[in-house]
Amino acid sequence: MLAQHLPRGLKWLWVIPALLLLTFLIYPLVKLAATAWSAEMLSELTDSTLWEVALLACGQAALSVGLSLLVGIPIARVLFTYQFRGRGFILALVTVPFVLPTVVVALGFRSLFGDAIPNGLVLVVLAHVYINLAVVIRLIGAQWSTVDPRMEVTAATLGANPFRVFTTITLPALRNSIVLAASVVFIFSFSSLGIVVVLGDGSGTRTLEQVLLRSTSVLLDFPAALAAAILQLVVVSLVFVISARVSRDEPRATVVLERKQISGRKTRLFVMLTCIVALIVVVSPIASILWSSISSSGGITLKWWSELVSTSNTRIGSPIAALGRSLGLALGTAVLAAILGGAIAIAVMSKKGFVVTLALIPLGISAVTLGLGILLAFSRGSLDLRGTGALIPITHALIAVPIVVAVATPSLRNVDPRRYFVALSLGAAPMRAWWTAFGTVFGGVMLAAGGLAAAVSLGEFGAATLLSRTDSPTVPVQIARLLSKPGESAFATAAVLSVILIILTMTLLLIVDRTASRKVLT
Amino acid sequence: MTDSILQVRDLMIGYEKALTPALNFTVGPGEILVVVGESGCGKSTLLSTLAGVNPPLSGEILLGGKNLSGVPIHKRNIGLVFQEPLLFPHLSLIDNIGYALRASGESNNSARLRATELLDWVGLSEVTGQKTWQLSGGQAGRVALARAIAAKPAVLLLDEPYSALDPETRLRLLADVKNLVTHEGIPTIHVTHDRSEAELLATRTLTW
Fold first, then answer.
1. pLDDT tens-digit map of A132-167
2. HSE (CB half, 13 Å, CA atoms) of B83?
């Protein structure tokens, strides 16, 4: 109904995101396939080394899933079924690792464990658990808050001990969210890049994404890169299919039950201990980075911070220049994503579902694959965009687009379209009526899109590694390079850059939370 | 006053197939036509069609003798109040009520002055500074009515307004509506599934 009555100026606006997505998403992917599809690529696809990497990555991802569930489920229970002071703070805190740039997390773990745990599988899995804790806690917790606790009480009155109650009543009730969380963590860990590059360095722990990056940026072997991309896509799709099959087809409970007050010493102790563990787990790597940025072998010092401005540190470029570059790229990404997000919002209202489907494609395509496609598509002839500096913002905006859709679609659907008709019936011209009914949410969507995309851009590592020139890296690329160098100075400089990146990312997300999401949720 | 006569001729409404028989009726100044029927019988679709949200399957709608076919919603001068007040949450109460006046080009000051009068008139001057979401259901309903009246509509359409409220508040508001439209002489169509409501309000009823 609304689609028919949209102001004339907006009716065709969905064409803009459709054209942009076709040009910068579909065309590069087609170009990549056309360039690299060959007999050589097919033989690469049967190469045993590639399959070995895939199998090892599957094992690593499975370990990451198991440990994430083990740590995350008790925290989800505490945060989503009990009411206590400080609950909101702890919940916000456990979300922080998910939004931190991956190389920053990697640095945190390297800094925290030093030589105690060498680079390799253990450190990689621990870092993946750290990053994905929020996924487990929020997905499982959301379902837990809809499970009626009286079911557990009933089972107990029927003679079941606490363990039996948990395994026969609680876990089955949480099955779908556990499956979903496990799939998401598996996919993130399986296609991880920043963590594996830094914490897997020198060990056999690798992922296909890393093979893809190496084939592209070091070996210039596009058939091998495409083979890795295809194999990765197959595994990711398989996980989605298995996840859908394992999930029970049941109506999702939407009524959130009131959280329980804590009663009894045992429960109080359980809640307190869980919160303390969560606090320590989340804060330790961040505190360790901060400590590394203000300490040296001689004690506490601020010299790494002062040197940041004065030095053109090492041969891999000035850190401060990288910071300026990253901020500029984040700004460009924010503008692009806001425009794209706004136009997609209109497409949602115009019921142009295929635009939304197009916008979700980057979810299944890795950042490096996307970057490689863009590089191949826009580096020749009249379509050469390499000198414009637009390749990274375009790629980052595309990576952020699914997040924008996830934020925009529900909030736009929540707005009662009858408000638009009320405004029209009061004599407002269509454009004015549209702005009255949807302007606040629309503005919120654009702000959120810009803010979230800027945060993504600041921390993105894979595509930036591929697309930035050797002499002009972004901050995450610079951090990874510094970490591959020996010496205290390089490590401390990386820590300083990481602290700045953490502050920038958190500030951005806080602003989005305080402004955009409130508008979106009004 | 002939400008304010709504005539409906052989009007068929619905989406793919007709929900009603061909409808014929006239509503004049100060009249309240109450359409009574069960849920799903097409009452709300009738109002949506008159307002221009849905196109009619066939037939004519005339306002003051002018055929409304092809006239967009914002140029029909037909006020519409839904079951929920649907106040604009980012605007103040005064700006909600003065919305139509501002849209028609009146100055901000004069719109606010008129809106303040109307807010007072619906008995809510004490809540002027409140946000839309701080109002009770009854208060929000009164603001929605004042907003529709401020536009000086040629016809007022009421789609089961206040049905979500408690019976006492609803009856009080309906009595206010009756006084208001009779006093202002606005032809009004009110749809409801509640026969007692029809008895309270109607100068005529329509069922099918």
1. 999 999 999 988 888 877 778 777 777 778 888 888
2. 11
